[in-house]
Amino acid sequence: MRFDVVTLFPAIFDGYLTQSLLDKAIVRGLVEIQRHNLRDWAEDTPHRKVDDRPFGGGPGMLLQVEPTVTCVRDVDAMCDVPARKILLTPQGRRLDQRLAEDLATSDRIMLMCGRYEGFDQRVLDILQPEEISIGDFVLNGGEVAAMTIIDAVVRLLPGVLGDEQSSLDDSFSRGNRMLEFPQYTRPREFEGHTVPDVLLSGDHAAIAKWRAEQSRVKTIDRRRDLLPENSKPNHEHPNQRS
Ligand SMILES: N#Cc1c(-c2ccc3ccn(Cc4ccncc4)c3c2)n[nH]c1N
Which residue ranges does the record assign to the tRNA methyltransferase TRMD/TRM10-type domain (predicted)? Predict the structure, then answer.
């Protein structure tokens, strides 16, 4: 899979791209990530300006339609595989595991990271990107959201996680709507806190039963909404692909 990230701050991704799981996936050719600085498409070259004040007044600045549309079209044309265009925005469809799994089926994804107050509306009208939000809170730009999407998607790609790390049993993965059971490792005791005896018993049936019960209790306590009898579909955003 290839990601193309359009951003005013490509350097934000430097540390992220060298973290082990992603770095290994890149080295193994399972994923490719290309960054594109929107300022490289600025008309006004001395100041590389790509933003301006909103018509009608209001706070802040908007990213202008011309450099953005030109940039996205040029980036899309850099590779034969057309990119699935995703625009990060607080107004987007909420990212969840189901959407991450859908994104993981794409061969190429372009992540459009805005800043300031976002993009001129004509960027959305012309390019028709899918709009995605990572949650009901306000960020200063799309880059953190883009990294979140890359993180959630790359771990789902075949071969990225070894069998022992399979994402299949993760909370939320592939319809699994239960929170994970508590986990323990060495030492067996720390400051008087011990490991549940069942986990040391070697009785795999009893361990499975205990873990299932722990998941159920935790889910009821923290995320009753995940239980089948309470689940509601995450309605697709109006401009979301079916
Ligand atoms: N995905 C996602 C997001 C964002 C987000 C994403 C892109 C941009 C570009 C600019 N801003 C700042 C801004 C713009 C408009 N209203 C308020 C703040 C962004 C925020 N905030 N919260 C999320 N879950």
Answer: 1-228
Kindly report the protein residue whose alpha carbon is nearest to atom 11 of ligand 1: 141
* Residues annotated catalytic, as ranges: 90, 117, 155, 170
The superfamily (CATH) of domain 2-154 is: SPOUT methyltransferase, trefoil knot domain (3.40.1280.10)
CA of 12 to the centre of ligand 1 (A): 16
Q: Which residues pair with 110 in a beta bridge?
A: 4, 85
Model ipTM over 0.85:
yes
Q: Report pLDDT digits (tens) over 94-148.
A: 999 999 999 999 999 999 999 999 999 999 999 999 999 999 999 999 999 999 9
Domains of the chain: which residue ranges? Answer: 2-154, 170-230
For ligand 1, whether the C-beta of 175 sits within 6 Å is no
Give the whole-angstrom CA distance, residue 77 versus residue 71: 10
> Is 134's C-beta closer than 6 angstroms to any atom of ligand 1?
yes
Give the whole-angstrom CA distance, residue 164 versus residue 144: 28
CA 94 to ligand 1 centroid distance, Å: 12
Three-state SS at 94: strand
Determine the residue type at 123. Answer: V
In short, whether 93's Cβ falls inside 6 Å of ligand 1 is no
**Is 65 one of the annotated binding-site residues?**
no
What percent of the chain clears pLDDT 70, i.e. is strictly above it? 90
**How far is residue 6's CA from residue 147's CA, in Å, rounded to a whole number?**
12
Task: Please report how the helices 20-27 and 143-154 are oriented relative to each other, as an axis angle in degrees rounded to 10.
Answer: 70
Quickly name the fold that domain 170-230 has. Trp Operon Repressor; Chain A (1.10.1270)
